[in-house]
Predict the structure.
Amino acid sequence: MGRTSGGGTVTRLGEKRYLIKWHQGRGRPNIRKIIYGTRETANRALQTLRERFYSGIFGWPQQMETKVAELTQLVVADYRANNYKSVRSAEQLQAFWNAFAGNMLAETVTATDLRAWSTEWRENGLSTARVNRRVSFLLRAYRLGAAEKPPLVTSIPQWSKLKEAPPRSGYRTWDEFVKVRALLPPHARVPVTIEYWLGTRQAETMSLEWPQVYFNHQGRTVEIRLASEDTKTEEERVAVMGGDLYDVLGEWYKHTRKVHPDCRWVCHLKGRKLASIKSSWRTACVAAGLGRFDNPKGRFVGNRRYRGALIHDFRRTAVSNMEDAGVPRKVAMAISGHKTDSVYRRYHIVKKSDLIEAGRRLLEHHQREHGHGEQLVNSPRLERSAHTKTNT
């Protein structure tokens, strides 16, 4: 028997089969539609008809013909229009979704699909953070599509963000840095040296040009100026340092002027701007014992499932070194480019030696205030307590 629901009826036909009847008014055909699922699903469909009717829209909703690939294009276009620094990452995610589900009709993708895909990806070794990035990109595409005039989609699949692992706490010692750097090809030693000392992000490092580098040979220092358009925070940053950074950049500058006089990039390979040194880095780390390949027979380095030290570890290392050296936090944040104190503190890695030193200082403080520990053992209160226990 059908149930009337505000101008329409829902009738159970069988297991998970319901018939919706909706009268659209005089002169318009009635709607009869079989819905597969629960009664709640059928009631929602009827409610949609009712809302459309009172909005002056008649007939059964037609499924949009928009494909997933059309939605992902909106995200990349949005990144470019807003001049976001991470447009390259957006393009990579777009390429993934276009290959994975680009030809699917967008409105056929459901929450069940997202859960099934995420489970499959995690079983294949993808981290929860990477899974979240993939799905978040897709849902952003849906939201942009829904905001178009007219909208490209009428519904957005639901998704609950997966719990991610805590942020990495990688820290590299000076000996580890020197060991890995010696195993890198000459062109890759420059960016890792800059990132070890200054904690710059990879995109910031690779965007450096020689006009932004000033040598003071008399004082044996080098000044590096990051342009605001090249930094994530869109603020200009300046750092001045001597020692190892001055020596490495100085030698590399001489080599560049001699072999590639027209090259303006600090980080380059044979005069062409470097995009990444991941392959060189991973190979060197494995040779130095700071990483491993789970699939060492992979044809390319990127297929060998690297596990180990990351170049980004130097960002944490630089922050920790500046803290340990007593550099004022405001100055350190200006060098590393951290905008908030909370994120900066997350990059300051507390080493075991710091904890040991903290324990030593706490004990010294206690001894200054209360005397040595052995005096507590012979205190009258403890003696009375021991005497009481003996008598009982």
